[in-house]
Amino acid sequence: MSILEDTEAYESWLATQCEVVEKDLARKHERMRKNPFVFLRATYYRWARRIEKICTELVDAPSVLCVGDIHLENFGTWHDADGRWVWGVNDFDEAAVMPYAFDLVRLTASIQLAPQMKMAGHDAADAILEGYREGLRQPGPALLDEQEIWIRSYVKCADDCRRKFWKDIEALKAANPSPLMRKLLIASLPGKAEETAFFRRTAGGGSLGRPRFVVVATWRGGRVVREAKALVASAWDWSHGKTPQQHKFLDLSTGTYRSPDPYLRVEPDGAGTNFVFRRLSADSRKIDLDDDAANLKHEQLRAMGADLASVHAATRDAGGAITADLKARRRGWLHESARAAREAIEKDFDVWCRKAG
What we know:
There is one protein chain. The protein has 357 residues and is an alpha+beta fold. It has one domain. Helices cover 44% and strands 16% of the residues. It is built from 14 helices and eleven strands. A six-stranded antiparallel sheet has the order 6-7-8-9-11-10, with helices on one face. A three-stranded antiparallel sheet has the order 2-3-5. It has a two-stranded antiparallel sheet with strand order 1-4. It is globular, with a radius of gyration of 20 Å. The model has no long low-confidence stretch (mean pLDDT 93).
């Protein structure tokens, strides 16, 4: 099937899983023309459909619970139950069981596709693998007040960042969610929060088109913000004809080697769709690289690999099996597999730009 046919098939299925926001879906289609990196972010369903044919040599790699839609901008910050500042993978919408190597390939391919990326050759793949092996040996969260202080300089939120956060919140359009959704959003706020107002939010890449609601309230002298985003089955399971009984989102986000966000939870909306609820703030957010991807350094890519390994290591007995598989792989396999995936994505991108209406 072509990218156009897969997109139509996936979006037809998506409409059976949640109330699609058509305006946001149209925006997603237009954003997919921006560059191959944005296209990658928006089309995990296509990746899930094709990657086993593109990288046939990786199909027999040990299967673990994976992120699926991993890429350079799928990392962010949050505060854990003890108030510690944590950095790491922070989006598990596409969590599913698959060969672990596909997460590594997708992360590395996103580096190769990132605009003006300076470190996109063998060095980038080597940095990812270096960190990944380290993460398998010593899995654990990246705590920014203790072990991984050096990351703070890359993710700190300066005054401009905070002003932009509130400017974006103030620009949201009012919404009228269902009574149950309003109740769930209010329940996610601190006790005795006041002056609640509800909004629609447009954000993300692959999740564009799914409904997002935001509640803003006043609590003890300042504003607090919570978001609810529709959660559907992983595109990996969709592409393989599976109908899982329960989404794996929380299994990954609260895994053995994570220090999870206590505000992150999944609740049904009463109309057949689950929603992910989370706290939004200037220093608890997904890190949007924008043009900063060009300046990514070895240590940052190594940290991404290490955090991904900590996610994979939560699957029982995964560490030993993955380590043995990595030792059996020839040198350069990750760079070569990512290059093959990148080339397939670029071809799909060209087709989309020429033919999508």
